[in-house]
Amino acid sequence: MERGLILLVAAFMVFVAPGVQGTAHLSFANNTEVNITRTGCGVSKLCLETPDNCDPAGNGTCLFGSLVASTPVAPNGVNLSVELRGNSMGYVALGLTVNASEGGTMLFVCAQNSSNNGSFFFRTMMRNNTDDMLTPTETRVTEIRGSVKDNVIQCEFDVPGVNATSTRSSDATTFNVLLGTGTLNGNSLGPFNVSLKSGALNIADPTSNTAGTTAAPTMTTNSTTAGTSVLHPHALLVLLSVLTLSVMQKA
């Protein structure tokens, strides 16, 4: 049976204490689908997934995230539109961090509350990259939409003013992107289990995680291509030797 729920947030989420969600302007609508696909990957949106090339629109296991960034404007950074899809009985999450081994990760969590008929809810957390501790944090997130169906969690949301630097005169869009899942106990989040670390990516470039095109090595053959004969250097020397010998014999 499908369990769908859409959550629209017009104001930022406020967390007043660990495990306690503060007030926000919320509206709900039942039986609403969020359909995430690979359309636009590498062209209009930066995509990450595990396993490789899995289909978020299919029925198989696929942890998938995509990012679309506006043009960077210093010092405001970029506005991000995010898609997230994964299989979990607890939560799926996408994280942004400048350094995955130290500092913190801004974690965007889409979850289902099994104690409330699998209803969808959204949270933002700060993950300590040293000890993996999760702490509720205030982050402005808008246009949150989410659905849950057969333990497949899908959500879309916008994050304004994302900047990898605190320098007011510049903007930076290079982040490490993390994808992962976790368990849920009531409204309390269990540890974030990282399934994918992207390495440093320019989130404003949809092609930043695709391998660069490398020219194939030139293959030399004796065949004729498009009417043009290809001669190896040693073959040319042999031909010149034969011609020289022929001229000497006629002299």
Commentary on this structure:
This protein is mainly beta. The chain is built from 1 helix and 19 strands. A hairpin with a 2-residue loop joins strand 15 and strand 16 (188-189). Residues 1-31 and 212-251 have low confidence and may be disordered.
Our count of helices gives 1
Number of domains: 1
Over all CA atoms, what is the radius of gyration?
27 Å
CATH third-tier fold name: Immunoglobulin-like
What are the low-pLDDT stretches, counting only 5+ consecutive residues below 50? 1-31, 212-251
Mean pLDDT rating: 75
| Count of extended strands | 19
Strand content: over 45%
- Name the CATH architecture: Sandwich
End-to-end separation in angstroms reads 98 Å
Query: What is the element string, with H for helices and E for strands?
Result: EEEEEEEEEEEEEEEEEEEH
Assign a percent range to the helix content. Answer: under 10%
Determine and state the CATH class.
Mainly Beta
What is the SS-derived class?
mainly beta
Main β-sheet description: 6 strands, antiparallel
| Shape category | globular
Strand order of the largest sheet: 11-10-9-8-14-17
Set out the fold topology.
Elements: E1 5-9, E2 15-17, E3 20-21, E4 26-30, E5 46-50, E6 63-69, E7 78-87, E8 91-97, E9 104-113, E10 119-128, E11 134-136, E12 142-149, E13 152-162, E14 174-182, E15 184-185, E16 188-189, E17 193-202, E18 224-225, E19 228-229, H1 233-250
Antiparallel strand pairs: 1-4, 2-3, 5-6, 6-7, 7-13, 8-9, 8-14, 9-10, 10-11, 12-13, 14-17, 15-16, 18-19
Short structural description:
Keywords: Signal. This protein is mostly beta strands.
